[in-house]
Amino acid sequence: MAAEDFGEYLDRVPGAMPGPYVVSVSIWFWRIAMLLWSLWLASSLVRWLPWCWRCFSTAGVWRKKPPRAVPPAAPQVPPAQPPAAG
Known about the structure:
Layout: H1 27-56
């Protein structure tokens, strides 16, 4: 195997590779962001609750079950008469 066989491992960037960088913020930023998100979520749920209840209870919340369908009775067959002795 030659070095040319491993072409997928070669860099394909013209010029020098860009260097990595890190964006760092204080932990307080994330805490404030999570607080704002949780307040938004709580207020949204309070706003959505009436709509959810209307959708849930549109046809009635405590409905009675429909009566069970009674299967038709099997036809009564009279008992067979014993053969006449004769």
